[in-house]
Amino acid sequence: xxxxxxxxxxxxxxxxxxxxxxxxxxxxxxxxxxxxxxxxxxxxxxxxxxxxxxxxxxxxxxxxxxxxxxxxxxxxxxxxxxxxxxxxxxxxxxxxxxxxxxxxxxxxxxxxxxxxxxxxxxxxxxxxxxxxxxxxxxxxxxxxxxxxxxxxxxxxxxxxxxxxxxxxxxxxxxxxxxxxxxxxxxxxxxxxxxxxxxxxxxxxxxxxxxxxxxxxxxxxxxxxxxxxxxxxxxxxxxxxxxxxxxxxxxxxxxxxxxxxxxxxxxxxxxxxxxxxxxxxxxxxxxxxxxxxxxxxxxxxxxxxxxxxxxxxxxxxxxxxxxxxxxxxxxxxxxxxxxxxxxxxxxxxxxxxxxxxxxxxxxxxxxxxxxxxxxxxxxxxxxxxxxxxxxxxxxxxxxxxxxxxxxxxxxxxxxxxxxxxxxxxxxxxxxxxxxxxxxxxxxxxxxxxxxxxxxxxxxxxxxxxxxxxxxxxxxxxxxxxxxxxxxxxxxxxxxxxxxxxxxxxxxxxxxxxxxxxxxxxxxxxxxxxxxxxxxxxxxx
Length: 539
Hints:
With 539 residues, the chain is α/β, with parallel strands linked by helices. It has 14 helices and 26 strands. The protein has a seven-stranded mixed sheet with strand order 8-9-20-21-22-19-25. Helix 7 (155-169) crosses helix 14, helix 8 packs across helix 11 (416-433) and helix 8 (178-189) packs antiparallel against helix 12 (436-443).
């Protein structure tokens, strides 16, 4: 009888264990289905703010995700992202939907947030975990070796950091699309030589490069790099907009030290999160990775910036830093475009030897379904991107609401050399459109193209007409940078000058963009700086 009871008890416990496992499986599936594939992702602001952290990372974007993931292998980390999850969102995950989040924006909740420069150029910044890697065209290419040397990075660690990113997020094209083949051959026929085949390296001429879209057309964002995090050491809080950095009151003649941040949840409720108080200052920091608009904006809102500008908004001065928000840049593009029912990802690029301009082609979603359909409408664009512009501008606050965009002026083409280089790129586009390969693709000729915008001039030797194309089709390629530049706002270790316990690690620190799409280099930078910190890169 006792033996029967024991057997029944064992069966009951086994049944209970099976039910518990099924419940956990159901919970896990539910989390994944609602866009929370990691157990450390949450929207519970109160719980996230209830403990202290070694590092608080502000901005779960292109640099923030790899940086937070790496730091969590040794330290406790809070990663704050003002947007939501990219997972389970078709307009993010599907390659064919590229461009849709850029068109469907609002002030506070959309995946992308539109801003318009003082010149009137419409632009966009990401508001989602993964940052710009969740809304861009996916082209993946490294910075050139000369760029790496000029910045002063450790070339060996740069290589290791790129490789770490690429093992998870970069995919060689399985095959070139018919349009990419035509673009490749057309570029060569237009004189964009030599042909370099497939390479991730920045090299002059025509090349094929990788994509963050895999062979099935699924996007892989910087958020995927959080798979490398230590789940016991990291909290990723979504829908958390940081309003200011908190500082300890410094002793006489001492520098202010960052002690935490103040943030609001999606309902506008305010919270504070604090750093651990340790004897080792190197393992207790706030790190801004909020991007080339968000990081300078947050410094200004926190009282670090030009004193006269901060007075306009009655922001208490922490540090007079005149260069915060200065020397910002955006890479202008000139383009021709038309509508079609075909979608093509960027697989091929031409890099001009003389000007370093980029000649590329991309498709953007106009309307239809969120997966490819022969009735969908896409905008096809052939454009030249002005790499390494000389024109620079400035960023200033418009309001003290951290959810609002700052005001920014890029002063496109204010340096006349930028306009001359654009004209050179436009002439290469004309040669490309008139190449035998694009004729064979039934593209006809430049002047017979069914352009939806302004066509190229018939007389390409007319400098005034070509320059006017640069002005009339002026647009962004979303690669804006600067505002917290190394040497002006931060030092070579990305520590903010004049204060302690605060770094900035994102494209706002770039003196120049890397020329190509900056996502590869920005993800690399997040890994690079965090590895340096783990190796003892201290004050």
